[in-house]
Design goal:
about 230 residues, disordered N terminus
Length: about 230
């Protein structure tokens, strides 16, 4: 029996424990990252069988990324550990894939550098503005993640053993190009969102009111606190 099994409504609900299924899936994703890297480089990355198993591990890790958040929201098991660890696990998986495929000559290095610099920069930016609130994720960020995952998975797979392998490879690079565009566009968008959040947050309004000796209020005399929901960039 967990501490939050029976909550009858007296007082605030107990804080969910970190020992839950969504966090276990996040940890599993962390553990799968080095396994993927090892399989990807077996026999110089040229053996179809090893590349296939690398794809299986990558696909499994990608599936846990989508499942853990849904389970956490459905069961009310969103924790601070999950909010921090989940996006880091995502970046570890995609970062390993981009670097690994670039080392194998599958993905151009300049593409990997642009995408990884954007991901690191936005992650740092989120931590910088966290005291003002959490930047809400838009559809662009979710589409960017989906395109990156699809392109990396396809380029990990030994496409050359499939019928019309060259055509599948071309499609994979088209998806990668779309992922690159969405990565840059959403990165710029998040910079503007961060600036707006910093200017309009409750914390900033309180500081301005204290300096100007005016009450912190809008047209209705009320302010809306920033959303504290974990989001994906």
């Amino acid at each position: 029996m967990t501490p939050h099994t029976f909550h009858r409504g007296e007082g605030p609900a107990p804080r969910p424990t970190d020992w839950n299924l969504p966090n276990a899936l996040t940890v599993l994703r962390f553990l799968l990252v080095p396994v993927y890297g090892v399989l990807l480089f077996q026999d110089g990355g040229a053996e179809p069988w090893w590349r296939f198993w690398a794809w299986v591990v990558f696909a499994l890790a990608a599936v846990t990324d989508g499942v853990d958040g849904k389970i956490a929201r459905r069961r009310g098991e969103i924790t601070n550990f999950g909010k921090v660890a989940d996006p880091i696990a995502d970046k570890a998986l995609t970062g390993t894939a981009f670097i690994g495929l670039s080392l194998l000559g599958v993905v151009w290095w300049w593409v990997t550098v642009v995408i990884l610099v954007r991901e690191v920069a936005i992650t740092v930016l989120r931590f910088v503005v966290i005291r003002h609130g959490v930047m809400p994720a838009g559809r662009g960020g979710k589409l960017k993640t989906m395109l990156q995952t699809l392109s990396l998975g396809a380029l990990t797979f030994p496409l050359w053993v499939l019928p019309f392998g060259e055509a599948w490879l071309f499609v994979s690079y088209v998806v990668l190009g779309a992922a690159l565009v969405m990565t840059v566009v959403t990165g710029v968008d998040y910079v503007f969102k961060a600036a707006q959040l910093r200017e309009t947050s409750e914390r900033t309004l309180a500081r301005r009111a204290a300096r100007g000796g005016r009450p912190m209020s809008g047209a209705t005399g009320e302010t809306t606190p920033p959303d504290r929901t974990a989001t994906r960039d």
